[in-house]
Structures are given as C-alpha cells and as structure tokens.
Amino acid sequence: MPLYIKDDVTADLVAQLAKLRGLTKQDAVRLAVQAELDRDQAAIPLRVRVQTLRAAHPLPPPTDQPADKAFFDDLSGGL
Questions:
Q1: Which of 7, 62, 70, 77 is 20 to 30 A (C-alpha) from 49?
Q2: Which residue intervals of 1-79 are DSSP H helices?
Q3: Rounded to whole angstroms, how far apart are CA atoms 50 and 45?
Q4: If DSSP codes are grouped into helix, strand and coil, which group holds residue 67?
Q5: Residue closest to 31 by CA, chosen among 46, 14, 48, 49
Q6: pLDDT tens, 36-54?
Q7: Sign of CA dihedral 41, 42, 43, 45
Q8: Which residues neighbour 12 within 8 Å (Cβ) at sequence distance 6 or greater?
C-alpha cells in the first residue's frame, strides 16, 4: 500500500535522511519508524517486558523431580 506524504517539511526530512544514508526514501522512512519503535520499546521498564514475555511463554509446571547430576548426565546422553 503506498504511503503519500503530504507535508513538504516531512518529505524534505525523509529525502535528507535518504541522501545522508544512501537509502531510498522508502528505506529511510522504514529506518526512522523502526528507530522510534525501538526507542519506545526501550522506554518500557524491563520488569514489564519480562512480565509480558512470561505471560506469553509461561514456564511448564514443576515436575517435582530433582535436577541433580544424574538428571543432567541423562540429558547429555550419559557422558
């Protein structure tokens, strides 16, 4: 889907970034938007990001089996 920038100042800024970096205007827009998204993501506290990750990928339930040397030796083929 095409993106039409109607604001001349914004179009000029995109052209400046594209020229400076040796990019197409499309790649310059992508780069700028990705940088802003990365900055917003970094502003989210680590605690919140970890909670979100843990909610999306919960740990399996405990098995009540000991994770001792024998357990790890068995995982690695008894080496």
A1: 62
A2: 8-21, 25-43, 46-56, 69-75
A3: 9
A4: coil
A5: 14
A6: 999 999 999 999 999 999 9
A7: positive
A8: none
